[in-house]
Specification:
The N and C termini lie far apart (29 Å). 32% of the residues lie in helices and 27% in strands. The protein has a three-stranded mixed β-sheet with strand order 1-2-3, covered by helices on one side. It has 78 residues and is of the alpha+beta class. The longest helix is centred in the middle third of the chain and has 16 residues. α2 links the parallel β2 and β3.
């Protein structure tokens, strides 16, 4: 996906990754993994990084949604 290939190296430096699960009703549905799953900063990453970048690159996008189960904190940071 446009933007994710640019964003994933930054997330990888913190042990994380993000993938596009689907585009549903105008929203990019994202799933975080690795160190991003359960991370307390994921909301900031989603809103300030991913959403901004993807909406700049994909003009018809209405926003982003996170479908990650962040209650599983086995890989995340507190």
């Amino acid at each position: 996906c446009v933007g994710l290939s640019q964003i994933n190296p930054g997330l990888a430096s913190h042990g994380g990754i993000v993938a596009l699960a689907e585009i549903h009703e105008g929203y990019a549905v994202l799933e975080f993994g690795g160190g991003c799953q359960g991370c307390s900063a994921v909301d900031l990453t989603l809103e300030e990084g991913l959403e901004k970048t993807l909406m700049e690159k994909i003009l018809k996008l209405l926003g982003v949604k996170d479908v990650t189960d962040h209650s599983d904190m086995s890989n995340g940071h507190v």
